[in-house]
Design brief:
Number of domains: 1
Radius of gyration: 19 Å
Low-confidence stretches: none
Strand content: 25-35%
Helix content: 10-25%
Oligomer: single chain
Largest sheet: 8 strands, antiparallel
Number of helices: 3
Number of strands: 12
Shape: globular
Length: 230
């Protein structure tokens, strides 16, 4: 069993990156934090989508999440599939991307991330950290004409956009999407496995001289157990 009695915000804000450990790889120190955050996301609450009158339209429950973690300094833990990280091309500006505020959403071509990057120095973050929602389930409480969600678990991460944003009134300016904690204090450790379609990377040298990373061909699975599911 793991403790999930704190709020999701407390777990995300207390995260401080990989720790030094003389016996194990530094990335091994991430697992307890990832397990606890995953336990909270999968068992300790859900997303709420409310309309302009604060009436709940639907609740979105998570069933599988994947963690992404990349350190920006030499010798750090590397996860080159992370979208929001400093560019490897030294000629690109900005050379350092400011950190997202903790708990903000990052939408990209693969889905939606919940971010908890280093905010000690937001303009020069040491690490990037986020959780991709891999699968989810929608419970509708208020029917919207022309919009209908399946009650089954949906394993298509890009469809999480629909669960959060479809049918919300942006003209009224009061539509809300937020995380709601529940009262569950403990849960079983979430099951874990490698992330879906995340491969290993190799170093290439650009014609102008700098090094950059590309996914290996043929594909080699990244074996880090950073996906958690019910």
């Amino acid at each position: 069993m793991i403790d999930i009695s704190n709020t999701l915000a407390e777990y995300l804000k207390s995260f401080s990156g990989a720790k030094e450990d003389g016996k194990n790889l530094r990335e091994d120190s991430l697992l307890p934090s990832f397990q606890q955050i995953a336990g909270k996301l999968l068992n300790g609450g859900h997303f709420v989508v409310a309309d302009e009158n604060d009436e709940v339209m639907r609740r979105v429950f998570l069933h599988e999440v994947e963690f992404y973690y990349h350190e920006e300094f030499d010798g750090g833990v590397k996860d080159y599939i992370v979208y929001h990280r400093n560019p490897e091309d030294p000629n690109k500006c900005p050379k350092t991307l400011p950190a997202f505020p903790i708990g903000s959403l990052h939408t990209h071509v693969s889905g939606v991330d919940i971010t908890f990057e280093d905010n000690q120095d937001p303009n020069n973050p040491r690490y990037r950290a986020s959780v991709l929602v891999r699968s989810f389930r929608v419970e509708e409480e208020k029917k919207i004409p022309g919009l209908c969600f399946s009650k089954a678990v949906d394993g298509r991460p890009t469809y999480f956009y629909n669960a959060l944003f479809m049918g919300t009134d942006v003209i009224g300016g009061k539509a809300k999407v937020f995380w709601q904690n529940n009262n569950v204090k403990q849960c079983d450790e979430p099951k874990c496995k490698p992330r879906h379609n995340v491969g290993k990377f190799e170093v290439k040298t650009h014609k102008t001289g700098y090094e950059y990373h590309v996914k290996k061909k043929p594909f080699e699975q990244d074996e880090r157990l950073w996906a958690f599911y019910l």
